[in-house]
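Running this now, will post back.
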Amino acid sequence: MRYGRLHGLETPVSRIILGCGGLRRDNMDKATTLLDAFRAAGGTTLDTAFNYGRDGASERAVGQWIAERSARSDVVIITKGAHHDAEWRPRVRPDVITQELTLSLERLGTDHIDLYLLHRDDPQAPVGPIIDCLNQHLTDGRIRAFGGSNWSPRRIEEANAYAASHGLQGMVASSPNLALAVATDPPHMGHATVSGDPEALQWYERTRFPLLAWSAQAQGFFSERGNPENPDARRHFRRYDDPRNWERWRRVQDLASRRDRTPTQIALAWVLDLPLEVYAVVGPGTVPHLEDALAAQEVTLTPTELDWLNLQETR
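Update: finished.
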């Protein structure tokens, strides 16, 4: 397992982060099996959110596993809050942050969150009250560090400029979407993606700002489920149904065959080998899927291969 460090956290952060959105306390056998396997492989970092599952089912499952395994000191808990409401209206406000953070701590059975991410942004909201609120929770020990999920580089810079000018802690990490496949539909519902966005990727490369890539496997687009000749696959992956993505798919299959690797490993290695301070969030449904994803760390892609997979080079 590869690791990195985030400012404010003592425990190393595994480069592959286990997305826990599909875990439920009413199916703890599955949750326990996946979490145990991830921990046994050296995984340290778990990603969940206030709104994953009914009544916080994901946070509750993670909390139960941590308690049963006495694993709190071994893991980095990432959770998120202040998601938009059911009508997709922004809720990035101090009162919502405080209310949801308090309940997340209770569900997870812990006195602090290692990395707290704001699940969405409201570009119209001033950053000052948000940063002030999060710093109060830092001071009170409820969180160790914070960042933004689906925040743009511009808003991160705005938030951190406010923090610096007021002697406060700023954001230490960002979690946008990043994968080799580029969605054909525009960002919606508060999502932020840097896939296919050279300007944003250059910002992350220049600043070395830690990037936690959600949907790093493009929802399994490069797995055995994806095939441009399969009508069911084209329907299932309709947001990636584009000639350029299918050419990326073909090149991944080609390189996987020549490297004796799975397509999933090649596509995930593409994310991990970018010249960024990058971590990949994966959401496997089974232990074999988890093992397949973890093996991507054994693959090293050259800059030429990275460009070729992303249609930037020909050969």
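The beta strands are 3-4, 13-14, 16-19, 45-47, 76-81, 113-118, 143-149, 174-175, 211-213, 278-282. More later if anyone needs it.
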